[in-house]
Amino acid sequence: MNKNDFIQELVKQANIDPSQGNIVNEIFESNFIAGNKNKNAIVSLISEKLGVDEAKADEIYNIAAGMIAGGVMDKIKNIF
């Protein structure tokens, strides 16, 4: 899944607008490192940057993290 596909799917699943999708993507690109992620910090950034409450930010985080994990698993499956 490329960056644009990720943003489009995030917008659809999280029910946010494309500019918010871009912001979330930037947050994840800057802060999400496999095995070394700080969910609370990322959720707080999402909440702050999008102006949403913590519950909505957590929902957006979970959707985005799930999409990233799914994309990684797809790449691993394609190796075999």
Q: What does this 3D model show about the protein?
A:
With 80 residues, the chain is an all-alpha fold. 80% of the residues lie in helices and 0% in strands. The chain contains four helices and no strands. The radius of gyration is 12 Å and the shape is globular.
Give a brief outline of the structure:
By secondary structure, the protein is an all-alpha fold.
Low-confidence runs of at least 5 consecutive residues: none
Q: Which bin fits the share of residues in helices?
A: over 70%
Strand content is under 5%
- Provide the gyration radius in Å: 12 Å
Termini gap: 18 Å
Shape: globular
Order of helical and strand elements: HHHH
Q: Please work out how many helical segments DSSP would assign.
A: 4
